[in-house]
């Protein structure tokens, strides 16, 4: 009996632990979906309110995704690379570019591209004798320029769309005013026509017209009496 009770207790404990594990998985999944939903909503709002910042942020994220070893992810310190500050006077990295974008320091895409070029030039200058980092920076520079060319096309399309929207908003009220003027002219013409017809009717009623006699002639219909009308003779056909 003691063994059976212990087995039942362990089984109940295992069942409860399994329920807790499933509950934790559901909560984790719910929080992940909530985070994705809020992230997509925030990105959509940023695209609508600040489309240029969204384009530049996507460029930085794409370049960061290609930095597999996180060489350009953070600023270089003297502890990690001794003598770096003496050679490189204007250091630059991806995290600094992200912070400047969040502060609003980049007014256009060319400013972001200049900082990216500065970061790549610093890499090639300091690692001219280090073949691994020089090739690593050269590869990332080539990929980054590809992303910037695509972003420039997006900026051109955005500028064109803004120009079209401004043009449409400036001429949207012109047809309405023309239609109002046309309707007013038509109403004036209709009122003039009605007034002319009314005056003609009044003049025709005021004039006295002579009565006209209509000659009516009774038509007499000739009637035939059956007794007077001769009957058709019958012929004997040899019957």
Automatic annotation (TrEMBL):
<dbReference type="InterPro" id="IPR051831">
    <property type="entry name" value="Bromodomain_contain_prot"/>
</dbReference>
<keyword id="KW-0103">Bromodomain</keyword>
<dbReference type="InterPro" id="IPR036427">
    <property type="entry name" value="Bromodomain-like_sf"/>
</dbReference>
<protein>
    <recommendedName>
        <fullName>Bromo domain-containing protein</fullName>
    </recommendedName>
</protein>
<dbReference type="InterPro" id="IPR001487">
    <property type="entry name" value="Bromodomain"/>
</dbReference>
<feature type="domain" description="Bromo">
    <location>
        <begin position="64"/>
        <end position="134"/>
    </location>
</feature>
<dbReference type="Pfam" id="PF00439">
    <property type="entry name" value="Bromodomain"/>
</dbReference>
């Amino acid at each position: 009996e003691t063994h059976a009770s212990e087995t039942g207790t362990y089984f109940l404990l295992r069942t409860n632990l399994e329920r807790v594990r499933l509950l934790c998985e559901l909560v984790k999944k719910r929080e992940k979906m909530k985070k994705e939903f809020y992230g997509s909503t925030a990105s959509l709002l940023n695209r609508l309110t600040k489309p240029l910042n969204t384009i530049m942020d996507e460029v930085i994220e794409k370049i960061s995704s290609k930095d597999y070893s996180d060489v350009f992810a953070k600023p270089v310190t003297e502890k990690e690379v001794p003598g770096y500050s003496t050679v490189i006077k204007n250091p630059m990295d991806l995290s600094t570019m992200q912070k400047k974008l969040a502060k609003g320091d980049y007014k256009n895409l060319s400013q972001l591209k200049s900082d990216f070029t500065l970061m790549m030039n610093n890499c090639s200058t300091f690692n001219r004798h280090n073949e691994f980092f020089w090739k690593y920076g050269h590869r990332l520079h080539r990929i980054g320029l590809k992303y910037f060319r695509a972003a420039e096309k997006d900026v051109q399309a955005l500028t064109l769309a803004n120009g079209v929207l401004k043009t449409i908003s400036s001429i949207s009220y012109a047809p309405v005013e023309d239609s109002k003027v046309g309707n007013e002219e038509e109403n004036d013409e209709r009122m003039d026509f009605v007034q002319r017809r009314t005056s003609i009717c009044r003049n025709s009623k005021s004039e006295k017209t002579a009565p006209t006699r209509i000659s009516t002639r009774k038509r007499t219909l000739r009637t035939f009496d059956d007794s007077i009308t001769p009957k058709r003779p019958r012929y004997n056909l040899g019957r």
